[in-house]
Amino acid sequence: MQENDYFCTQNGKKLSRNGIYIQFFMLLILVVACGQKKQEPVVTPWGEIQDSIPQDDNFDLDEIQRNGEIIALTLTGPETYYDYHGKHLGAQYLLAQRFADKLGVMLRMEVCRDSAEMLQRLADGDADLICYPMNKKGSGWIVGDDKADLVRELEAWWKPTLLAEVKKEEEFLLSSRSVTRRIFSPMLNRAGGVISHYDGFFQRYASTIRWDWRLLAAQCYQESTFDPQAHSWAGACGLMQIMPGTADHLGLARSDMYDPEKNIAAAVRYIAELEHSFSDIADRTERIKFVLAAYNGGHFHIRDAMALAKKNGRNPRRWGDVEAYVLGLARAEYYNDPVVKYGYMRGSETTDYVRKIHERWNGYRGVKTIRAGFSPNTVPQKAKRERKKKYQV
After folding, report:
1. Angle CA(378)–CA(382)–CA(386) in degrees, nearest 5?
2. What distance in Å separates the CA atoms of residue 65 and residue 53, rounded to the nearest whole number?
3. Helix (H, G, I), strand (E, B) or coil at 234
4. What percent of the chain is predicted at pLDDT more than 90?
5. Please, how many CA atoms are within 13 Å of residue 102, restricted to the half-sphere of its CB?
């Protein structure tokens, strides 16, 4: 048996791993036990009572399953945990979700700022385990020494192929293959100026937000290629790929999510909300770019990129300056920056989204697209290199 065929505790004790290559490092938690379990007094309007849950209860597997939830700690990152169109991804998250499913409980994944915070919170009993690769050789989850049953369950569940399986699953979810849609022409009748079968709806609802209807049409093509039955693995539905939770917020009945007019009308209401949320951007041409970026990548991620731009002396209300930091949020030196609140994002997907919509909109209007150059004075060096590679012709 090789050295990496063991689970290890921090105090050096080795447990057989049955050939598993992930190391589970056990965190030594000192528990004060003096015969009878200690209970915490709770003050109520009727006086002081004893808490029914002992303070030194080890909250092992049985308690986790009885409670119906397992709490895991991690850090944000492309290999660990991140938000993607309102859904959670990352290999460590997907592994943790599979383990929670095996236990028959809900998973609550909480993001910490650094490994020291994770270790401290686990030691304080705020979580059940840490789902983060804590060594350079591979993944390493940490479980407290008071959860021997949970460790045994992990040992029985884990198999060497799991990590590769979840990475393959994630790769599929991030690809265009995960979106079910028919591909329609980007323009129905170029000579007649007819873009799609839904031009009347675009014209009607775009006017309510003072958008050029052809811009809304260009966004729709980017979302669904004009297929009203399009749907994605994440649950996005219809022409404008509206998420179920967003539909609830907008008052769009889920039974109406594939209705072309109602879907477009709801999307325009959402765009109006995003416009309002970026009302600090006075230049409307610029604001539209931020709105499109937020529609795709999320308002909070775009605000993070704006904060990075401001911190680095750029204009946080100019897309040409902020775009580089949207790209930068895919890199640890950016998404771990203290001004960033919402962590990692797949920035290249969002910048592509904004660029492609504008290029198609220009095509619909008969305007030639001119791509701006990037100066070392306006683009962070590392983000600039990524950008140069991406747009190389």
Report:
1. 95
2. 16
3. coil
4. 61
5. 14
Alpha-carbon gap, residue 357 to 222, rounded angstroms? 7
pTM reported for the whole predicted model: 0.73
| Closest listed residue to residue 174, CA positions, set 331, 323, 330 | 330
Q: b/e map of 200-224 (b: 16 or more CB within 10 Å)?
A: ebbeebbeeeebbbbbbbbbbbbbb
* φ, ψ of residue 284 in degrees (nearest 5): -65, -35
Q: How confident is the model at residue 336 (pLDDT cuts 50, 70, 90)?
A: very high
Give 329-370 as a DSSP string. TTSHHHHTSTT-SS----HHHHHHHHHHHHHHHHHHHT----
DSSP code for 81: B
3-class SS of residue 180:
strand
CA dihedral 217, 223, 226, 228 (to 10 degrees): -120
Reported as a pLDDT band with limits 50, 70 and 90, residue 54 is very low
> The tokens of 138 are what?
């591979």
Q: How far apart are CA 29 and CA 210, in angstroms?
A: 60
Helix H or strand E encompassing 143: strand 142-144
CB 208 within 8 A of CB 154: no
